[in-house]
From TrEMBL:
The keyword Manganese belongs to this UniProt entry's keyword annotation: no
The protein, known as: Guanine deaminase
Free-text function comment from the UniProt entry: Catalyzes the hydrolytic deamination of guanine, producing xanthine and ammonia.
Cofactor comment text: Binds 1 zinc ion per subunit.
A molecular function (GO) term: zinc ion binding
Pathway, per record: Purine metabolism; guanine degradation; xanthine from guanine: step 1/1
Length: 454
């Protein structure tokens, strides 16, 4: 007989913390969270005393119940709205140069190695595992121009169980000979990549977690013809779009010299059918007011990548202004412009960035946590699927333990759940991420030795 209890795959009992809005974090104490066999949140009961738990469980097997202790809590998984999978290979290096020189000197030579599928398999296994281990349950990945390596990345993400947008990068101008395509091959391979992901998804016995995303690297590396074709592909397949925007002053100047018909850099994408409610633009550091207004008008999202913006000396984005204009904003690690694949580090850099910009309008913990979870979900247009623990959403989450082995966080008797949570945000790391769930399933990370590559 199909009963409520028989449809439940897991129940968590303990503290749950999530964002209700950008202004409010909800701390649910003694919560009972029921996950169904499709990985969705079926029921949430708050303030259940110990002696009521049995009655509330309604016959769910005890082996499906996870009971948290006072140092543990569950939060929604982090959403990394901008990360480059091949660049993890030089994460932590190369911060001496600004963007355009950094691309030529470090990034393009390393990305060219992904022409080799075997190399891609080994390296991508490591990139994805590191991202997941840091609690990123959803990521917007840039791959490279290479079709076979892009397919490998999809296979690895599928195997490891992350939710993801994956983009085959497009580059047909202003790129080195060893990392460039023609317009025709770029469009052909992008179409082949989309078809590959769609075919892979059709074979699954669960709701797919991976979506192809149209990924012109940035306007500098794509001709107007190619941008137009990519806009058409996004429309034909109804796909999200990601790129870079207004990261660095030299980049902006070069872009405007290439696209003089457009009124500004943001308009370059709009003029090619690439700016809509499924677009994610990384950086947006040097935006004119009219560009922010265009983002708002099109309901496009911004990936704020403060760590990268500090490292590459790009500048400091005005996130307060974006929030005031009600533009969708999430956080991006932007590995390897950013030196860390952890959204916790992105959150900390975002706070520092806001303090350095204007000490009177700094981002608050409530806002930072929202950006790392619900904000990211909105940027990906997945706000009805993930981002918090609303009934009916899919359960993507981190079980945090502030007293885990080797925890960088120290808790004391005076700590409340609120202070433990805040310590995790500012002091914690992946050692505190005891378990990670995507679509209700615990993610099993591969042995890092297996994934390593010399
Ligand atoms: O931070 C960045 N990383 C990149 O790889 C890139 N490509 C274009 N613009 C970029 N910015």
């Amino acid at each position: 007989m199909h009963t409520f209890a028989s449809s439940i795959s897991k129940v968590f009992y303990g503290t749950l913390i999530h964002s209700l809005s950008i202004k409010e974090i909800e701390y649910i104490r003694q919560g009972l969270l029921f996950i169904d066999d499709e990985g969705k949140i079926a029921k949430l009961v708050k303030n259940v005393p110990e002696d009521r738990v049995e009655a509330e469980l309604e016959g769910v097997d005890e082996d499906r119940v996870v009971r948290l202790n006072d140092d543990q809590f569950i939060i929604p998984g982090f959403i990394d709205t901008h990360i480059h999978a091949p660049q993890y290979t030089f994460c932590g290096n190369g911060h001496d140069l600004p963007l355009l020189e950094w691309l030529d000197t470090y990034t393009f030579p390393r990305e060219s190695k992904f022409a080799d599928k075997e190399y891609a398999h080994k390296l991508y296994t490591k990139s994805v595992a590191r991202s997941l281990r840091n609690g990123t349950t959803s990521a917007c990945w840039f791959a490279t121009i290479h079709l076979d390596a892009c397919k490998e990345l999809v296979n690895i993400i599928q195997e490891q169980g992350q939710r993801a947008y994956v983009g085959k990068v497009n580059m047909n101008q202003n790129s080195p000979d060893f990392l460039i395509e023609t317009t025709e091959s770029s469009v052909r391979d992008t179409r082949a990549f989309i078809e590959y992901v769609n075919k892979t998804n059709a074979q699954l016995n669960h709701k797919p977690l991976i979506t192809p995303i149209i990924t012109p690297r940035f306007a500098i590396s794509c001709t107007s013809d190619l941008l137009t074709e990519l806009g058409k592909l996004a429309k034909e397949y109804n796909l999200p779009i990601q790129s870079h925007l207004c990261e660095n002053m030299n980049e902006i100047g070069f872009t405007m010299s290439l696209f003089p018909q457009s009124v500004n850099y943001t308009a370059v994408y709009a003029d090619h059918g690439l700016l809509n409610d499924r677009t994610i633009m990384a950086h947006c550091v040097h935006m004119k007011d009219e560009e922010l207004d265009l983002m708002k008008e099109k309901n496009a999202g911004i990936s704020h990548c403060a760590n990268s913006n500090f490292n590459l000396k790009s500048g400091m984005a005005d996130v307060r202004k974006m929030i005031n204009k009600d533009i969708k904003v999430g956080l991006g690690t932007d590995v390897a412009g950013g030196y860390s694949p952890s959204i916790l580090e992105a959150l900390r850099a975002s706070r520092s960035c806001s303090v350095a910009r204007n000490a009177d309008t700094t981002l608050l913990v409530t806002e930072l946590f929202y950006l790392a979870t619900m904000g990211g979900a909105r940027v990906m247009e997945l706000q009805d699927t993930i981002g918090n623990f609303q009934i009916g959403k899919e359960f993507d989450a981190i079980l945090v333990n502030t007293s885990a082995d080797n925890s960088p966080v120290d808790v004391f008797d005076h700590d409340s759940i609120e202070t433990k949570f805040e310590k995790y945000l500012f002091v914690g790391d992946d050692r505190n991420n005891e378990k990670i769930y995507v679509q209700g399933k615990e993610v099993r990370l591969p042995d890092s030795k297996v994934a390593s590559h010399k």
